[in-house]
Structures are given as structure tokens and as C-alpha cells.
TrEMBL record:
InterPro entries membership: Kinase-like_dom_sf, Prot_kinase_dom, Protein_kinase_ATP_BS, Ser/Thr_kinase_AS
GO molecular function: ATP binding; protein serine/threonine kinase activity
Amino-acid positions noted as binding ATP in the UniProt annotation, renumbered to this chain: K52
Domain Protein kinase: 19-286
Protein source organism: Mycena alexandri
A GO biological process held by the record: signal transduction
Protein's name according to its UniProt entry: non-specific serine/threonine protein kinase
Family of the protein in this entry: Belongs to the protein kinase superfamily.
């Protein structure tokens, strides 16, 4: 199932001649994504899609169940403007293809690294609120993403319009026993196998959004994993104000994040509360006066 084992399909015509796979634009653990031309669209105004290519699994296999779940749950939430639309799927003898919206701006990780959000409070608020709205839409419909991170959020050229993508790890289970599911830096403590035998994916999605908020504001991660083996996580557990020692964040954002990263999920803010508080903040970034007193690492961020 690894993307490296898939054939390079660049230039191939698929979907009974309707789609021309122009070039690869991304790859993940389980597939490869191509920019594809709709050959039925007019040459003067061509239509392009993103086509996710997966290896076709054997019937009734574990992988087949995962792919079926991804398609069904993604389709359930495709109507939201901040979720990449799954238009349809088809297969050949070796592959399964998902036809998705094409976002020309790339992913949020690249936008963060390019400085698109740097000290831009209005843009961060707009982008983060749209992500919360999309995740709430999913949760109301019983869909939990479980792998929210900037690499799985697509953006337009200027970064403002964000769309959630890649539902490969999503679930409709309100309580999950699939521990260690997701990307380590964005996982809540209860999602790790050493912490609990089960967790609520709804809570893990909210935790991941809080890490993404830090990414948008600082272009940094606060820790590698929220586990006792991580020095920065331990430092935060010992002193909640530790975040301002390593990140150029405002006092108000620091106070909110302290509540977001509580060990007990029931004591963390809800998505509605999180959205309201972030939009109501006057400052997300550390003040210039505080930056002068901050560590060199914080000043460089």
C-alpha cells in the first residue's frame, strides 16, 4: 500500500478516457496524488482535478474496508466549503482513484514555511475559524478526521481559504480503540497507546487544531509528542507558562492554550469556545516589549 510501490501513472488516460493524469502533485503513506485534466472540458477553459491514486486492495481485505470507510465518510462531509469535495471514485484492475477538488495554492505547511501567516492576525483568525467550522461540520455528522495537520489542509494562493483534505484515517466511532492513530506532534495524550486503551476522536481533533493554531502563529511545534518521553512536554506539565519561553505568543493566547492542553479532555475548551476566544483576542503575537526580553530563539521565530 505504500505510495512508493505504486506505478508512476503520469501521462496515463483513465476513467474511460475522461481524465488525463498530467503530473504528480503529492504523495502520502497510502497513495499518490495527480493533477488531472478533464478531457471533456473545453480547451479554452480546461477543468482540472486532483486525483488520488491508491493500490486496489483484495476484496473484503482490511485495506478494502479502510478505503470504503474513507470514501463514505469523506462523501458525507463534502458539502462544506472548507472541505475538499470528493466528486466520485472509480477503479481499474490495479488502482482505485478518488476525484477531488484541485487547490492550486498547495498545502498549509508550505504556506506557513513561506511566511504567509507571519504576524498577520486577521488572516490567522479567518483561516482558523474556517477550519473550526469545517471540523464542527464533520463532528455534527459523526465524522472524526484523526489526522488534522497543516500538510492535510489545502489553501489558496494567499492562504486565506483553507480546505481539509485526506480522510484516510477518519472514523465514525465516537470512542476509538485505535491508539497511536495520527501524526505524533498533533496527537492528544490520550491518543497514545501508553496513555489509554480508548479515547474520543472528537477530542483528538480539537487538540490537533490547537497545535495548528500554534503553527499558524509561530511556524513552530511546541513539542514532538505530548508524552512523558518528551522534554518540552514535561516542561509544560511542570510550568504552563513554559510556552512563552519557547514561543512568541501573547499572554492571552498563552492562557487559552494552557486550558486547551489540559490532561482531562472534559476540562478543555469546546470548538465553539475555542472559536469565540480566538476571534475575540486583540493580540496573538508576543508584544515588541516582551520580545526584547525574550530568549534569542523566541526573537528569531
Amino acid at each position: 500500500m505504500q505510495s512508493g510501490t505504486l506505478l508512476n501513472l503520469t501521462g496515463h488516460i483513465v476513467d474511460d478516457g475522461r481524465l488525463h493524469l498530467v503530473r504528480p502533485i503529492g504523495a502520502g503513506a497510502f497513495g499518490r496524488i495527480y493533477k488531472a485534466l478533464d478531457t471533456t472540458s473545453p480547451a479554452s477553459s480546461p477543468t482540472f482535478y486532483a486525483v488520488k491514486c491508491l493500490r486496489r486492495p483484495s476484496l473484503r481485505s482490511h485495506d478494502a474496508k479502510f478505503q470504503d470507510r474513507e470514501r463514505a465518510l469523506h462523501r458525507r462531509v463534502s458539502a462544506h466549503p472548507n472541505i475538499v469535495t470528493l466528486h466520485r471514485h472509480f477503479s481499474d484492475s490495479k488502482h482505485v482513484f478518488l476525484v477531488l477538488d484541485l487547490c492550486v495554492g498547495g498545502d498549509m505547511f508550505a504556506a506557513i514555511m513561506d511566511g504567509v501567516y507571519r504576524r498577520n492576525t486577521a488572516l490567522i483568525k479567518h483561516t482558523f475559524a474556517s477550519l473550526i467550522d469545517a471540523v464542527r461540520f464533520c463532528h455534527v455528522r459523526g465524522v472524526y478526521h484523526r489526522d488534522l495537520k497543516p500538510e492535510n489542509v489545502l489553501v489558496n494562493y494567499k492562504g486565506g481559504d483553507a480546505l481539509i483534505a485526506d480522510f484516510g484515517l477518519c472514523t465514525d466511532s465516537k470512542v476509538s480503540h485505535d491508539v497511536d492513530c495520527g501524526s505524533g506532534s498533533y496527537m492528544a495524550p490520550e491518543s497514545f497507546g501508553s496513555a489509554s486503551s480508548s479515547y474520543r476522536p472528537q477530542d483528538s481533533d480539537t487538540w490537533a487544531l490547537c497545535i495548528i493554531l500554534i503553527n499558524l502563529v509561530t511556524a513552530m511545534n511546541p513539542w514532538h509528542t505530548a508524552q512523558s518521553t518528551d522534554g518540552r512536554w514535561n516542561a509544560f506539565m511542570a510550568d504552563p507558562d513554559f510556552l512563552r519561553e519557547i514561543l512568541p505568543i501573547s499572554h492571552s493566547l498563552n492562557e487559552l492554550l494552557q486550558r486547551c492542553f489540559r490532561i482531562d479532555p472534559a476540562r478543555r475548551p469546546t470548538l465553539t469556545e475555542l472559536r469565540h476566544e480566538v476571534l475575540g483576542m486583540n493580540h496573538l503575537f508576543m508584544s515588541d516589549a516582551d520580545l526584547l526580553k525574550a530568549s534569542p530563539g523566541v526573537r528569531r521565530a
